[in-house]
Structure formats: C-alpha cells, structure tokens
Amino acid sequence: MDTRLVVTASFVAALVAGAIFAGGAVASDVTFTSGQDAFVAGVGFGGSFVGLVLLWFRNYVYGSALYTLSMVSTSWFVAYFFVVHDNPASVFAVTGSGRPAYAMGVAGLFVVTLIGSLVGGWVWYRSSPGFRTVLHGLVGTDRSS
Fold first, then answer.
1. How many C-beta neighbours within 10 Å does residue 89 have?
2. pLDDT for the residue numbered 95
3. Is residue 145, in this structure, part of any structural domain at all?
4. Within a domain: residue 93?
C-alpha cells in the first residue's frame, strides 16, 4: 500500500475530528483566547496539509517531517490549552448544551493528531536516513552491525 494513502487517511480523520471540535465550540459558545483557534487552523491543518501535499509530490523527507511536527505540536497544544491550562476554552470551563460535543471534539482531535504524529513519524523514519541515525542515537541502539 502507498504510504501517502495512510497519511491522507490520518489527515482526513483529523479533519473530521476538527469539524466535531468546531461544531462543539460553536454550539457551546466557546471563547478562544490568544489566537488558539488560529493556531489549530494554521499549524494543525495548514501545516499538515502542506506536508501532505509535499508527500504527494514525492518529497518524503520534508513532507513527512512537516506533517509530523505539525501533528505533534497540535497534539501538545490541544492537550495543554484545552484540557490542562485554565482558560475560557478549557473543557472544564465550557458550559452549555454543546459541552459534550466540544469535549468529544477536543478528545478526538487530541487522539487523531497523536495518531497522525505516529503515522508521519513512521514515514519520516522510513524515508530519512539522517532521522533514523538521530533516533537510534537517542534510543541507544546501534544499527551499524
């Protein structure tokens, strides 16, 4: 199977989770602060889309790196700003009838971007000898023998 299809499937799953997140945010009147919605749209979807386009143009090293880094940063951002951090967009601060949809959207977006990070990392590992060398150096495995 073409690895680009696997990455595309993870991107489509992120779009679905993002739609649930956005729908829940609208239904519960979430107040985003400090450009939180812009980060999720720009880095989370814009960055990963550019990475996906690069992958489809067979630029596996840069495409998978951009896709992975975009998904990792979005995963961290969603977990920190929408669950841990105390702000109006936190799942614990949101009220209204759309609260369950918003909480489900936050959880879904976190899980799907985490899976997207693993998928992108897998493609990056397979396509970049430099990334493999650095990763094996960090883990402490010797692949030279």
1. 19
2. 84
3. no
4. yes
